[in-house]
Amino acid sequence: MNLKELSQNLGLSQTTVSRALNGYPEVSPATRARVEEAAKTFNYRPSTRAKGLATGKALAIGHVIPVSNKHEMVNPIFGDFIAGAGETYSRHGYEMILSIVADEDENQVYRGLKSRRAVDGVIVHGPRMNDPRIPLLHDLGLPFAVHGRASGCALPYAWLDVNNRSAFLRATDFLFDLGHRRIALINGIEGMDFAHRRREGYSASLLAHGLHVDPALMRAGEMTEVFGFQSAMDMLGGPDAPTAILCSSLISALGVRRAIDERGLVIGKDVSVVTHDDDLSYLQNGGDVPIFTATRSSVRDAGRRLATMLLAAIAAPHAPPQHHLLEAELMIGQSTGPAPKRD
User: Fold this and answer.
1) pLDDT confidence of residue 23
2) Least confident of 42-51, 92-101, 152-161, 330-339
3) 192: which DSSP letter?
4) Which H or E element spans position 3?
5) What is the mean pLDDT of residues 118-126?
6) What are 66-104's pLDDT values in tens digits?
7) What is the DSSP letter of 271?
8) Mean pLDDT across 205-232
9) Whole-angstrom distance between the N-terminal and C-terminal Cα of the chain?
10) pLDDT score recorded for residue 302
11) Residue 247: CB partners within 8 Å, gap ≥ 6?
12) How far apart are CA 161 and CA 170, in angstroms?
């Protein structure tokens, strides 16, 4: 059923029906209730485009992904975040615009989204240290919210982040409590803010236990299974191999487990492993008892929350930006145990 047919069925003008469905105050409560009930009965939904024209909004949120980060599209972490955000958009009548762009065109895409009024706001993914997108969006006046934080950016902006420093400090402390002293870190790309904060937490724990940070026990790169495998194979093949490995991703932790197997070692006995991001819909960390000991945070819930924050900022553009810092849980799994005794 279209707007014309719904209007004829109700015996009202198309303008009145449209205004009733779009919340115009001049429509009486009785008429609005009648129109809404009929729309529900006949399963009528106004088009987003028509509703946008009526309200002066695009009713769309942008997500801009540079080509260099296109692997994010098949990353279960990104998928869970988008699913959570999409639930919130749908509930509020918004659509999502996902753009894959060349790195050098990213700034121009943001400018185009603003000048064409194609979106009402954007979510910024994968913030880097001193991220230049934040001052750009601030200058453009385009509402935005950041999934993470960007150290070095003094401008006010809305963000939602996991307390990465605290999570990795606690995880490293846990390994020390098990008697481990040779603890390695397989991190993300350290120009990314989350990886910087995780390394800070790991380093702080080492220093608190009277140990210096050993570069030989640290790797940083794109968090793939192959990267985890190659990093662990390299470190476990050395003369003073780590007895525990801390991973920034469940995906790279799978590679670490493969390396431990190939070295003829036993995970949780010869080498303990702690990972992050185990609360994923499509990459489960075991059943009732987790496979990996992990710092857990729900990425899907983060997507819901950040989308809600952005929509609130769009509705109240002069309100101060919101900040939410989530704490990760440490879940004990089968991948950790006491440090092995060495001769």
Assistant:
1) 63
2) 42-51
3) B
4) helix 3-10
5) 95
6) 876 555 544 677 888 999 999 999 998 899 999 888 888
7) B
8) 96
9) 79
10) 94
11) 186, 228, 253, 256, 273, 274, 275, 276
12) 17
Residue pair 164/198 in contact (Cβ under 8 Å)? The answer is: yes
Residue 132 DSSP label: T
Q: Work out the burial of residue 128: count CB atoms within 10 Å of its CB; fewer than 13 is exposed, 13-18 middle, 19 or more buried.
A: buried
Tokens representing 177? 């409590």
How many angstroms separate the Cα of 275 from the Cα of each of 8, 206, 243, 248, 285? 60, 17, 15, 6, 10
Q: What are 293's strand-pairing partners? A: 274
Higher per-residue confidence, 6 vs 325: 325
Tally Cβ neighbours within 10 Å of residue 252: 30
Task: Collapse the DSSP code of 232 into the 3-class scheme (helix H, G, I; strand E, B; otherwise coil) and give the result.
Answer: helix
Which residues face 276 on adjacent strands? 295
Q: Which residue has the higher pLDDT, 102 or 54?
A: 102
Nearest alpha-carbon partner for 245 in 111, 335, 161, 128: 335
Please report, for residues 3, 49, 50, 79, 89, the alpha-carbon distance to residue 57 in angstroms, rounded to integers and kept in the order given.
20, 9, 10, 27, 14
* CB-based contact 231:246 (threshold 8 Å): no
For residue 310, give Cα distances in angstroms to 34, 94, 146, 155.
32, 12, 9, 17
Q: Specify which residues 100 forms β-bridges with.
A: 65
List the structure tokens of 306. Answer: 């950040």
The two three-digit tokens of residue 281, written as one number: 């819909």
Express each pLDDT in 229-281 by its tens digit: 999 999 999 889 999 999 999 999 999 999 999 999 999 999 999 999 767 66
